[in-house]
Amino acid sequence: MYANNRQLHAACGLYYLSEAVEEHTVVAGRVIRLLSWMVAILHILLLVFDGFPLLRTLYSLATLGVVSTNMFQFPNILLSSPNFLLGSMTIGNHFAWFSYFGTHPATMLQVATFFSICVWLVPFAYFTSLSAGDNTLPTFDADAQTGQTRGRVGLFKSLFNAMAGRSATSVPASGLPNGLNFRKDF
């Protein structure tokens, strides 16, 4: 099925990353935000110190900004949302930098490193997190009647609340079996 072990290792690595994002969506969101800021700062530093072209750098920053708008819906990113579809600017960004490095001398390692970090790192992070929203279920929100809003309740918390016979919107700190304190122990 796989031509060699490198493809198998890449597939296993991608699977592991997507599983890690599914299990730790809050941490993954923070990491993606941090990566976005780091890549933006790196673009600015390359513009200032290495003389990278202004228009391509601005296009890359605009692409990064458009792709980062998916964070407003994270981890529930929809493939049909306008934010995700506008992320196809990444392909144009790839070709813009590809044409730049075609006319400016650089080693293959420098080009591969630039593309890996500055062009594809953040879009790839969103790609690996597409399945993270599958583990959150919509629940009834009693506060919606009063005008207050709350976030979605995760799968584990919904199942725990259902087994404990509690509403999905809140879990009291006491009253759990065997003296467990939900906020403290989980």
Automatic annotation (TrEMBL):
Coiled coil: none annotated. InterPro entries: Svp26/Tex261 (IPR007277). The chain crosses the membrane at residues 31-49, 84-102, 108-127. GO terms for cellular component: COPII-coated ER to Golgi transport vesicle; endoplasmic reticulum membrane; Golgi membrane. GO terms for molecular function: COPII receptor activity. It is a multi-pass membrane protein. This is Transmembrane adaptor Erv26-domain-containing protein. It is found in: Membrane. Signal peptide: none annotated. Keywords: Membrane, Transmembrane, Transmembrane helix. It comes from Thamnocephalis sphaerospora. One of its GO terms (biological process) is endoplasmic reticulum to Golgi vesicle-mediated transport. Belongs to the SVP26 family.
